[in-house]
Amino acid sequence: MTKDFIHKVKIYYEDTDAAGVVYYANYLKFLERARSEIIYSLGLNNKKLLTDHNTLIIVKSCNIKYKKPAKFEDVLTINSRLKLISKVSFTMIQIIKRDSEIISDAEVVLVTVNNLGKPVRIPEVLLKSFKKII
Amino acid sequence: MTKDFIHKVKIYYEDTDAAGVVYYANYLKFLERARSEIIYSLGLNNKKLLTDHNTLIIVKSCNIKYKKPAKFEDVLTINSRLKLISKVSFTMIQIIKRDSEIISDAEVVLVTVNNLGKPVRIPEVLLKSFKKII
Amino acid sequence: MTKDFIHKVKIYYEDTDAAGVVYYANYLKFLERARSEIIYSLGLNNKKLLTDHNTLIIVKSCNIKYKKPAKFEDVLTINSRLKLISKVSFTMIQIIKRDSEIISDAEVVLVTVNNLGKPVRIPEVLLKSFKKII
Amino acid sequence: MTKDFIHKVKIYYEDTDAAGVVYYANYLKFLERARSEIIYSLGLNNKKLLTDHNTLIIVKSCNIKYKKPAKFEDVLTINSRLKLISKVSFTMIQIIKRDSEIISDAEVVLVTVNNLGKPVRIPEVLLKSFKKII
Q1: What percent of chain D has pLDDT over 90?
Q2: How many CB atoms sit inside 10 A of residue B17's CB?
Q3: In the 3-class helix/strand/coil scheme, how is B71-88 assigned residue by residue?
Q4: Which residue of D has its CA nearest to A17?
Q5: Chain C residue closest to A14 (CA)?
Q6: What is the full DSSP assignment across A11-67?
Q7: CB neighbours of residue D75 within 10 Å
Q8: Is ipTM beyond 0.85?
């Protein structure tokens, strides 16, 4: 059963640029915050994954589409959903909205590597959690 | 005749994260710097485009693939090439390298809008320059 | 009666650097988020100040001391207090803590300017709110 | 004999905010880039300092004054000068200008720590270089 994760972000000055809107790279920060919060909600954290499982989650690709600009002092909702999992990678769909309006949507592929950057299998503890929410 | 534009960036502390590598969103900053430098090399700038032509260039989509991590104090080269132009959008291929090694590559679609965010045709002055380098 | 405002921030990858700690410039982002939240808690916001009162709040100086490094996945508390107000400027003391440990403290002087950047008096609506919390 | 170090930065979209000017925290990035370039000009780098001398340079305090706003597409010059050195810390004066106009000036105190964050003496190789430029 697919589960959607919701994370909210507020737009501060730091997020905007001289065009008066959120700078396009900063949406990737929001996506990463939302993904980190999913990890926390599963009872895990990145530090524990590294210390106990010698595993880092890294982004392999990010395909983001910008639909509408977000603005200073907006409150955005990031809706994240696991789309695919294999033994070594997983794919997330992340949609950024302001109320019901889509600001941006992204497909992000993530892989797990060890502390030397070598690809490794997704740790069992993470894989098990993922299987419950896909 | 396709022309490649080269822009170099040095990796400072601000670009890296606690994983010891360049933070994934920051590559989009490098891509934008490289695109701005192309605009400058064509004798234009973003301020002039807005003031004289009521035009802003905005990113419509960015599909970026992360191949190898860049590290603190690396010097990276961004190789940018115009792939497609229409009357209202253009597509760039941007490849980030450390020496001959590909760090990341991206396909970025850009559109032109007016100061109200409404899509407009690419200004003639820009379109003419673009046609010389594709 | 002096009032302390509390704002919490969580440390994500974007906030850290290759030294494994929060990058020194990023604390200024947290301070600004905390100050924005104070403005909101007073029933105001930066957009309204600009639209209704032709006023922007800008930082005139920031004297920040770094006591201990904050780390990835820390939760920090920013304790902000108004120290001084005049007709054209105000001074805040902002202390960043992890539990009871001081990470950093800052004295920030802010002034109000109009949309052309010219110094103006603090709008009455803001001044009145400030007088209640100092 | 005091020596001034010059570093130039160009203002890209990433550096600005919705107020149309450079975001106040981002000046600290420019200051850090300028300081890194001084280290490089002395034939050293941060990686070597850590590997060969188990030393990291960290900021202890930063007192920055904002005089004029810098804007999108400005080119700024950072003029850095060593003011004081002791066995465990050094102080720099860093002035950011647009042409002859002062945008911002800062006094930054830096200390050296080992990989565990414990204060250590400035490595001899760095101290000797510093003594030549103060």
Answers
A1: 93
A2: 22
A3: ECCCEEEEEEEEEEECCC
A4: D17
A5: C29
A6: --GGGB-TTSBB-TTHHHHHHHHHHHHHHHHTT--HHHHHHHH--EEEEEEEEEEE-
A7: 11
A8: yes
Classify domain C4-133 by CATH number: 3.10.129.10
Q: Give residue for tokens 């403290």.
A: C105
**Per the structure block, which two tokens stand in for C24?**
């020194």
Break chain D into its structural domains and give their ranges.
4-133
Neighbours of D51 (CB within 10 A): 11
Interchain CB distance below 8 Å, B117 and A69 = yes
Contact residues on chain B for C23, CB-CB shorter than 8 A: 13-14
- What is d(CA A91, CA A96) in angstroms, rounded to the nearest whole number? 16
At residue A50, the 3 state secondary structure works out as helix
pLDDT by residue (tens digit) across D94-124?
999 999 999 999 999 999 999 999 999 999 9
- In this complex, is the C-beta atom of D45 within 8 Å of any C-beta atom belonging to chain B? yes
DSSP A59-114: EEEEEEEE-S--BTT-EEEEEEEEEEE-SSEEEEEEEEEETTEEEEEEEEEEEEE-
The owner of tokens 């982002």 is C29
> Is D24 in contact with C59 (Cβ distance < 8 A)?
yes
- Interface size, chain A vs chain C, as Cβ–Cβ contacts under 8 Å: 30
Contact A18 D21 (CB under 8 A): yes
Count the helix, strand and coil residues of chain C and give each as a percent rounded to the nearest 5: 30, 45, 30
- Residue in chain A lying closest to B31 (CA): A25
Residue type at position D14: E
pTM for this entry: 0.97
pLDDT band at A1 (very low <50, low <70, confident <90, very high): low
Q: Which residues pair with A104 in a beta bridge?
A: A66, A96
Query: Does residue C58 belong to the interface with chain D, where contact is any CB pair within 8 Å?
Result: yes
Residue D37 one-letter amino acid: E
pLDDT tens column, C5-36: 999 999 999 999 999 899 999 999 999 999 99
- The position carrying tokens 């603090």 is C122
What residues in C contact B14, CB-CB < 8 Å?
Answer: 17, 23, 25
Are the Cβ atoms of A73 and C45 closer than 8 angstroms?
yes
Cα–Cα distance between D10 and C131 in angstroms, integer?
41
- Token pair belonging to D8: 């130039």
**Percent of chain B topping pLDDT 90:** 93
